[in-house]
CRISPR-associated exonuclease, Cas4 family
Amino acid sequence: MTDDHDGGIGGVHIKYLLHCPRQLWLYARGYRPEQRSDAVAFGEALDDTTYTRRRDIDLGEAKIDWVTTGAVVHETKSSRAPSPQHEVQVRHYCLLLARLGVNVARGVVHYPLIRRTSEVAWNAAARAEAEKTEQTARDVIAADRPAPRLPRDRCRGCSYRDYCWGDL
């Protein structure tokens, strides 16, 4: 078992929870096939070559792409379509900063491939939602067994697909 099983909940945990709870459970136990994923490599390359004048904020359990004056949290996504999942991940980063005493204003998700941004509100309701999502992630990680597989068509492009569907 890795430290992730007992440690803090980061952005990857939230992303995996929303994509597939089974993926989160496996990740928390050290299974990491995403290192061989072309999609992950593309996202990392995009992150490294876009908005190069900013610096990551490493919180240990999470790495925020950058924070600007006034405590605005920024996240860059390689997706060509905005997703509510991206906003949930940014709200989680806002929660982590708020716990450190930062008076977070809001968040912004950047989509450089489509040249769009999406504003993410940060208020009491957003904080409550972020806390609930974090608890759900903890519950999934603490479970004795992984969540059931998603329908196979929802696993297209997932680096965990071979693990979940490889023996059939």
